[in-house]
């Protein structure tokens, strides 16, 4: 299990983005509660993030026993009364993906059978999101199956962040709150006061995300034309836009092996950029990605703690916390308030 001290996330939360902090309703408050008492639960995927969310909400994690039998089967027991309560299970489906997915499903089922009033699956990183359509004959649409499993297990609502494909929201037959880490990343990039920045989309599919980011920074946009002959492998062909003499920020949702990101950064430097930064929401960082980033042309790789990130101290990786953003979404859901203010 990853310790909080290993992650060392920095909490970045603009004051202008939040009207009321904390999900514990004070005595005498007139805020209407739609459901019973707020209870937070966490599997083993990212307990430091769950604990940070609980601290933001001024509460603690409710006890749950989540472990494995000798043969690898998962055992779950909720260790306090949840009848009629508003329960939130905080569990990204990160590595090992299948084990953490089963933990999530079994915890939701346990809460449902314990007569919880409402069950919300809080999934900061939604695994299998890259398999959102059939790209060849006889292939599954894995993210749709994930949605079916979560719904069937008993979840009444899903809170997630920066889905790889926005249409995954439509795979669910229950409400989905699709949050974005852009406000957290934006605040950090603004504080760096980069001179004449340009935002770079690493592929055509990320143009909409990069354009919105560039607009908020009053920066220009550039696009990388790349091909992906095989999974986790990319070839960079062209750079569309002007980066010469400027500071480039590559914006993406996921960095996995880091190979594509390193190639993109090298291409941008070849085209005359002074410095290259990268801002990615989900740091999967598999197959020696940290070492690859260390040897790359990147000045800094900015990530969030949606996934536990183990990185060397003093390296090029910076981890920002999404706990305030996720906590505020939970608070507003619990109080029956709009979350529109979080999309600024």
Tell me the distance between the termini: 34 Å
CATH topology of the largest domain: Rossmann fold
Please provide the count of β strands.
15
Order of helices and strands: HEEHEEEHEHEEHEHEEEHEHEEH
Q: What is the CATH-assigned architecture of the largest domain?
A: 3-Layer(aba) Sandwich
Count every helix, treating DSSP H or I runs of 4 or more residues as helices: 9
Assembly classification = single chain
Structural class: alpha/beta
In the CATH scheme, the class of the largest domain would be Alpha Beta
Tell me, briefly, the overall form: globular
- Radius of gyration, in Å, reads 20 Å
Report the portion of residues in β strands.
25-35%
Residue stretches low in confidence (pLDDT < 50, at least 5 long) are 1-7, 14-32
Into how many domains do the coordinates divide?
Answer: 2
Characterize the biggest β-sheet: 8 strands, mixed
As laid out across the biggest beta sheet, the strand order is 1-15-14-13-12-9-10-11
- Helix percentage: 25-40%
Task: Give your account of this protein's structure.
The protein is an alpha/beta fold and 344 residues long. It folds into two domains: 4-180 and 323-338, Rossmann fold (3-Layer(aba) Sandwich); 182-321, 3-Layer(aba) Sandwich (Rossmann fold). Helices cover 28% and strands 26% of the residues. It has helices at residues 4-7, 47-56, 97-113, 142-153, 182-192, 207-217, 259-270, 289-294, 323-335, and strands at residues 10-11, 38-42, 64-68, 74-78, 86-90, 118-123, 157-161, 176-179, 197-201, 220-230, 233-240, 247-255, 275-283, 300-304, 317-321. Strand 12, helix 7 and strand 13 form a beta-alpha-beta unit. Helix 2 (47-56) crosses helix 9 (323-335). Mean pLDDT is 88; it is low at 1-7 and 14-32.
């Amino acid at each position: 299990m990853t310790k909080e001290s290993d992650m060392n996330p920095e909490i970045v939360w603009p004051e202008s983005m939040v009207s009321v902090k904390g999900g514990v309703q004070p005595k005498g408050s007139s805020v209407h509660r739609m459901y019973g008492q707020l209870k937070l639960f966490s599997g083993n995927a990212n307990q430091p993030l769950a604990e940070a969310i609980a601290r933001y909400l001024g509460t603690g994690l409710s006890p749950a026993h989540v472990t494995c039998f000798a043969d690898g089967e998962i055992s779950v027991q909720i260790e306090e009364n949840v009848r009629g309560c508003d329960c939130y299970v905080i569990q990204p489906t990160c590595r090992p993906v299948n084990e953490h997915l089963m933990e999530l499903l079994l915890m939701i089922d346990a809460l449902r059978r314990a007569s919880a009033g409402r069950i919300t699956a809080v999934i900061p990183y939604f695994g299998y999101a890259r398999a959102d359509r059939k790209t060849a004959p006889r292939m599954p649409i894995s993210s749709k199956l994930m949605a079916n499993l979560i719904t069937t297990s008993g979840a009444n609502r899903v809170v997630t962040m920066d889905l790889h494909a926005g249409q995954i929201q439509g795979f669910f037959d229950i409400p989905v709150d699709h949050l974005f880490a852009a406000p957290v990343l934006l605040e950090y990039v603004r504080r760096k006061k980069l001179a004449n920045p340009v935002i770079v989309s690493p592929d055509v599919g990320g143009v909409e995300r990069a354009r919105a980011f560039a607009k908020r920074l009053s920066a220009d946009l550039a696009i990388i034309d790349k091909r992906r002959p095989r999974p986790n492998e990319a070839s960079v062909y062209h750079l569309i836009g002007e980066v010469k003499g400027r500071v480039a920020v590559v914006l993406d949702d996921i960095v996995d092996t880091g190979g594509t990101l390193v190639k993109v950064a090298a291409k941008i430097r070849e085209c005359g950029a002074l410095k290259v930064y990268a801002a990615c929401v989900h740091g999967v960082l598999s197959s020696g990605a940290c070492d690859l980033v260390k040897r790359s042309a990147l000045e800094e790789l900015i990530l969030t703690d949606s996934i536990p990130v183990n990185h060397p101290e003093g390296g090029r990786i910076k981890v920002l916390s999404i706990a305030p953003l996720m906590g505020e979404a939970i608070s507003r859901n619990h109080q029956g308030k709009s979350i529109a203010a979080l999309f600024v």
